[in-house]
């Protein structure tokens, strides 16, 4: 059987799918798996994948590098700051981004001032995109000794052995290079997985398996490392509205979400309640996002989700930090996105095409500009 169940509550049923049956199964199993993937996206908007092509040690290395990155002194992280929606790369401090469904800037500002999200993040985009360099620590922090010398936190100024320290543990230039290597490798593995999941969707929709390939091969995607710092239980107790990340939908085609074991991710059920999307070791949570919902004439669902106080019983007063890694996939930015064949029928009431054609990159930019 292709699918077990990962989450089942309040009419929200998120399947747990053995993806190896799609990537290397016999043709019947492959077809069934493709249907299960599509079914998950047209009902819950979410699936969990196990036996996927990204090896556990690769994911572990990404989490280790991410945790280490966030221990860098604040001044260094700020030297790698996220700058513009067009670039969409770099570091965002706690409370800077408020993910929300609102598009009015004034309303977003008000929200942000009220209850900031308790998280910091670092975003990495496709390498080599004209005018949008990644904010790699080895390039930005170590190549110009003066930049780093001006910072408040300890830096050893040697000619070839620049290192930076937090809590006595040095961040070396070699380590910064290793960070880049690990993230670039992971980025391309996730890019390939995006293509595979889109192939499963194509097959599930009875389209040629390669239907989406020319939409997904550039890799105009964003890798986001997320750190939700440790937080006292009191913070949640004192403010009912306090969350680690506010309820939102994602913008692009799909998101690949890797979470640690802490918990706190919740998905909105058809009944409107928020249901725990409990971590399952070795799996990837994959959700459909807004542009894919639009592209599929809303056959596929982009479901709201959020990150709240972890549900696990807590010893002591402080919730430990939580780390997650989200890989936001988008159709190639220059592609025109118009309803997928078979998801609409002109002249059939309730089945008409609902949306105008939109350019992928322009759609994403509009959404990002409203968020930051
Ligand atoms: O940290 C998580 O588990 C979810 C993050 C998320 O939904 C996002 O960054 O869009
Ligand atoms: Fe999200």
From TrEMBL:
Tell me any Pfam family this protein matches. 2OG-FeII_Oxy
Q: Name one GO molecular function term.
A: oxidoreductase activity
The family database entries (InterPro entries) matched by this protein are listed as: DIOX_N (IPR026992), IPNS-like_FE2OG_OXY (IPR044861), IPNS-like_sf (IPR027443), Iron_ascorbate_oxido_reductase (IPR050231), Oxoglu/Fe-dep_dioxygenase_dom (IPR005123)
| Iron listed as a keyword | yes
A GO BP entry is:
small molecule biosynthetic process
This protein's UniProt keywords: Iron, Metal-binding, Oxidoreductase
Q: Start and end of every Fe2OG dioxygenase domain?
A: 219-331
UniProt keyword Iron, yes or no:
yes
PANTHER family assigned to the protein according to its UniProt record, in alphabetical order:
2-OXOGLUTARATE (2OG) AND FE(II)-DEPENDENT OXYGENASE SUPERFAMILY PROTEIN-RELATED
Q: Which family does it belong to?
A: Belongs to the iron/ascorbate-dependent oxidoreductase family.
Q: What is this protein called?
A: Clavaminate synthase-like protein
Q: What is the lineage of its organism?
A: Eukaryota, Fungi, Dikarya, Ascomycota, Pezizomycotina
């Amino acid at each position: 059987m292709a699918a077990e169940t990962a989450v089942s509550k309040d009419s929200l049923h998120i399947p747990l799918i053995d993806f190896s049956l799609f990537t290397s199964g016999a043709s019947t199993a492959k077809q069934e798996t493709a249907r299960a993937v599509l079914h998950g996206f047209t009902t819950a908007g979410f699936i969990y994948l196990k036996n996927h092509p990204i090896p556990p040690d690769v994911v572990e290395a990404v989490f280790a590098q991410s945790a280490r990155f966030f221990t860098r002194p604040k001044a260094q992280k700020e030297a790698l700051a996220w700058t513009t929606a067009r670039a969409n790369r770099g570091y965002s401090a706690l409370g800077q981004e408020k993910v929300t469904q609102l598009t009015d800037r004034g309303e977003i500002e008000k929200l942000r001032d009220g209850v900031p999200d308790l998280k910091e993040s670092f975003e990495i985009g496709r390498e080599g995109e004209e005018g949008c360099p990644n904010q790699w620590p080895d390039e930005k922090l170590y190549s110009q000794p003066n930049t780093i010398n001006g910072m408040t936190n300890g830096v050893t100024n040697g000619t070839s052995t620049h290192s930076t320290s937090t809590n006595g543990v040095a961040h070396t230039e070699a380590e910064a290079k290793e960070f880049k290597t690990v993230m670039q490798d992971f980025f391309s593995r996730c890019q390939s997985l995006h293509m595979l999941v889109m192939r499963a969707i194509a097959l599930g929709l009875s389209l040629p398996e390669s239907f989406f390939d020319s939409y997904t091969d550039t890799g105009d995607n964003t890798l986001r490392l997320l750190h939700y710092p440790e937080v006292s239980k009191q913070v949640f107790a004192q403010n009912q509205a306090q969350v680690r990340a506010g309820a939102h939908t994602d913008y692009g085609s799909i998101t690949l979400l890797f979470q640690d074991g802490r918990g706190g991710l919740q998905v909105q059920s058809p009944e409107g309640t928020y249901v725990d999307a409990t971590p399952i070791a070795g799996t990837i949570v994959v959700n459909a996002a807004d542009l894919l919902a639009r592209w599929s004439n809303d056959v596929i669902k982009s479901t709201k989700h959020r990150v709240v106080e972890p549900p696990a019983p807590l010893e002591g007063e402080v919730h430990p930090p939580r780390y997650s890694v989200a890989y936001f996939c988008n159709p190639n930015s220059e592609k025109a996105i118009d309803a997928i064949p078979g998801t609409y029928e002109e002249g059939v009431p309730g089945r008409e095409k609902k949306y105008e054609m939109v350019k992928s990159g322009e759609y994403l930019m509009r959404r990002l500009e409203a968020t930051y």
